[in-house]
Fold each of these.
Amino acid sequence: SQTIHQWPATLVQPVGSPLSLECTVEGTSNPNLYWYRQAAGRGLQLLFYSVGIGQISSEVPQNLSASRPQDRQFILSSKKLLLSDSGFYLCAWSVSGGVQPQHFGDGTRLSIL
Amino acid sequence: SQQGEEDPQALSIQEGENATMNCSYKTSINNLQWYRQNSGRGLVHLILIRSNEREKHSGRLRVTLDTSKKSSSLLITASRAADTASYFCGTYSGGGADGLTFGKGTHLIIQP
């Protein structure tokens, strides 16, 4: 069966520090991968998606970036965090875009001080 | 921008009662999906309904879709304490591998 892992589960970072969140999927090949952010009191906002190694599409311009160095690995990064980057970051995968259900990890709670 | 908007934002009912949540969206869709999120966890997929479908069932869940009104509803029958969670609708407009557009969700509390 397929599983998705995200780490760390929680993270507290100072403003201006770098960020690296990792997501890996097991049990499937060539998944579509997604990063969402959920801010307090708001719905999920799609940040990035990827259909293959090295292929990244950005939905919202900001100081975050994403990379897919391996088929089942998706990384969210920032060189300098802002207070507004606080939130709950969720990684998800699907077999084929939005025509199939998406499967979410348990998220990373990021707090910026 | 957010496509789906769930209504109500919060709902509290007694165990055993039925819970109904609504979702409205703005543009045409390929499908609409309902998800559940327990506190501090990721989203769990419940039901996917395609634009050419009007109703789907899964266990105690019933989803309807009215594309003319751009709205959907999720009915949970015979609610249980374990149904306490936030429920989100996500819409997919089609055209590629891009993700879903979600609303702010309905927070459902089942009173024992």
Note: Residues 3-112 of chain A form a domain with the Immunoglobulin-like fold (CATH 2.60.40.10).
Amino acid sequence: QQPVQSPQAVILREGEDAVINCSSSKALYSVHWYRQKHGEAPVFLMILLKGGEQKGHDKISASFNEKKQQSSLYLTASQLSYSGTYFCGANSGNTPLVFGKGTRLSVIA
Amino acid sequence: DTAVSQTPKYLVTQMGNDKSIKCEQNLGHDTMYWYKQDSKKFLKIMFSYNNKELIINETVPNRFSPKSPDKAHLNLHINSLELGDSAVYFCASSQVGAGNTEAFFGQGTRLTVV
């Protein structure tokens, strides 16, 4: 079952913050976040496993609420390099990784 | 060393032809995938192979057939190509279940059917 992402698109000015949400109707074992730039393959950002952990590096972090079956990606003090399409992927135990429809993020100067 | 490699990178072909895209991973992962990304940029899962067993097969036409000669390879064969098959196809691999890892993607194959 495909996770649902919101918003579909967002435009930010450099230095602004953004939150991208991902939810599922099925119990989740792990949530993955990827960023894809135009003409390139998706690039892994982070993975969150069942247990409610929060991860982050640099100014990008994420949380995973397994009870609500939701994950959020937090982008703080956005930079031009953050532009791209963000995908959340989810699986339940041994099931394959299925992606949401993506959130297009544009950071402008 | 490239973790997931797929060939070719570009493929232009006429309607009605049969073509294959190859994918190989050297990560020792037990699961490989094929995703289709259309002009709207949706990453739609097409197939997944876990230890050579097909474990998910979305509503894709049976003109598409995955072939996995071993755990490190998952090729995609497409018969009777149609205009609507034009898209970017990504191969990926990961470890699911215990030891769950991120998915590593190949560079993508841009298929154009004319």
Note: The domain at 4-113 of chain B is CATH 2.60.40.10 (Immunoglobulin-like).
